[in-house]
């Protein structure tokens, strides 16, 4: 076979997706850093905290005790029970371990759930801005994304009426991510509840990506799982990555009707199998151990959020809504488009990286063209360094 034939022999489905925008900027930033550039990194989507000691110790103990073999595909029962119990205790949900599966990161749980529910032509309603991977995950299945715009001037509010207009006979899933990556917006519990009632009345699933559910700064932490009467319509997707600062460990989960979990188990049995055995033990320690680490991190993020938003708003021409959760600010940089040869958010992020040595993520990957995402999961000193560089860059345009 010629090399040309080899290069063209990829599937239609892999041709439908692109490398994640956040991964792309991370790899450019990594290259620049390896070349000795003193970079300020506001691009990374991960906590700056180390994993709490007791969680790390549980992983080390698991290795020492040779807990290093295959486990059941859906995860050890102890962990599946711990996931369900933690969720019940914190949010008033009501899941059994058979309605729980653990996966190799939240991303893996999301990817697999789309694979078992979305066929060619099926539609998924996705509010904009959205996390980069949703669109590609749906399109990989041959599904169609039906985007619903939200607006910064209205605090990116999402209502059931907005969702209702987007429903078609092919709609299978309404995908909600609150707190939201990238905008930091928290959907009001009343709006979430109205959307679930609407979805249930139309036989549509609501998939709630709860990756940041513990990083909610409104003081009113809420999960759709508390609406136990709508359990049949809910797919709750969770992750330990941000809650316990465990991004590299790769542990996520799904809480869903037993039939869905069964299909996820089947898919997992033919792909990744169980998440890493020792990580499962660390995850049990995270979920069953003291939770004050979660609260400590949340409080620190609130301080960092206030600091970065104040700094961004102080840059003439930058507008920024106040994020209510997660660890991203999503400033509007549209007043600079058309200045200094800048045509798009990608241009802005690209030049910020190459000229000001500040890594951010352009809004295009999240479905908006007038914003950049600034991750504030870093120290105040680093925020100040980056904000100063941004101020100089924008002032010079
Ligand atoms: C909204 C959202 N969902 C899911 C994930 C997946 O996280 P992980 O695969 O590390 O559990 C991320 C990670 O950045 C995210 O931002």
Structure description:
This protein has 397 residues and is of the alpha/beta class. The chain has 14 helices and 12 strands. The chain has helices at residues 3-8, 12-15, 21-34, 53-64, 77-91, 106-117, 132-140, 160-166, 189-202, 258-269, 277-288, 292-313, 345-356, 380-395, and strands spanning 40-41, 100-103, 123-128, 144-149, 171-177, 205-209, 234-239, 252-255, 328-329, 358-359, 361-362, 372-375. The strands form 3 sheets. The chain has a 7-stranded mixed beta sheet, sandwiched between helices. A 3-stranded antiparallel beta sheet has the order 9-12-11. Strands 1-10 form a two-stranded parallel sheet. α6 runs parallel beside α7 and α6 (106-117) crosses α10. The longest helix is centred in the last third of the chain and has 22 residues, at 292-313. The chain starts with a helix and ends with a helix. The model has no long low-confidence stretch (mean pLDDT 95). Bound molecules: pyridoxal-5'-phosphate.
């Amino acid at each position: 076979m010629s090399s040309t034939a080899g290069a063209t022999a990829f599937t239609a489905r892999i041709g439908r997706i692109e490398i994640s925008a956040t991964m792309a900027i991370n790899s450019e930033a990594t290259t620049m850093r390896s070349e000795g550039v003193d970079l300020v990194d506001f691009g990374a989507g991960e906590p700056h905290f180390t994993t709490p000691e007791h969680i790390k110790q549980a992983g080390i103990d698991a290795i020492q005790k040779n807990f290093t073999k295959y486990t059941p595909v859906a995860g050890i029962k102890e962990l599946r029970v711990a996931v369900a119990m933690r969720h019940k205790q914190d949010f008033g949900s009501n899941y059994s371990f058979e309605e729980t599966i653990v996966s190799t990161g939240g991303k893996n749980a999301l990817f697999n759930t789309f694979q078992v529910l979305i066929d060619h032509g099926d539609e998924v309603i996705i509010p904009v801005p959205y996390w980069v991977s949703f669109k590609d995950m749906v399109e990989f299945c041959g599904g169609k994304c039906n985007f619903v715009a939200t607006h910064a001037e209205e605090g990116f509010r999402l209502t059931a009426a907005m969702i209702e207009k987007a429903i078609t006979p092919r709609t299978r899933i309404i995908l909600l991510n609150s707190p939201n990556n990238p905008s930091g917006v928290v959907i009001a519990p009343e709006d979430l509840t109205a959307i679930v009632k609407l979805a249930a009345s139309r036989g549509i699933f609501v998939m709630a990506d709860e990756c940041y559910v513990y990083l909610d700064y409104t003081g009113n932490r809420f999960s759709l799982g508390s609406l136990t009467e709508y359990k049949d319509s809910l797919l709750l997707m969770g992750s330990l990555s941000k809650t316990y600062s465990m991004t590299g460990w790769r542990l996520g989960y799904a809480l869903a009707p037993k039939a869905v979990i069964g299909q996820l188990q089947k898919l997992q049995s033919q792909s990744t199998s169980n998440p890493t055995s020792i990580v499962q033990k660390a995850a049990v320690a995270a979920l069953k151990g003291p939770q004050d680490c979660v609260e400590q991190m949340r409080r620190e993020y609130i301080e960092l959020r206030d600091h970065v938003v104040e700094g961004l708003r102080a840059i003439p021409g930058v507008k920024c809504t106040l994020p209510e959760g997660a660890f991203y600010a999503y400033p509007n940089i549209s007043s600079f488009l058309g200045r200094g040869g800048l045509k798009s958010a990608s241009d802005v992020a690209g030049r910020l990286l190459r000229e000001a040595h500040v890594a951010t993520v352009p809004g295009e990957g999240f479905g908006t063209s007038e914003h950049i995402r600034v991750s504030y999961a870093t120290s105040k000193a680093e925020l100040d360094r980056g904000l100063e560089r941004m101020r100089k860059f924008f002032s010079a345009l």
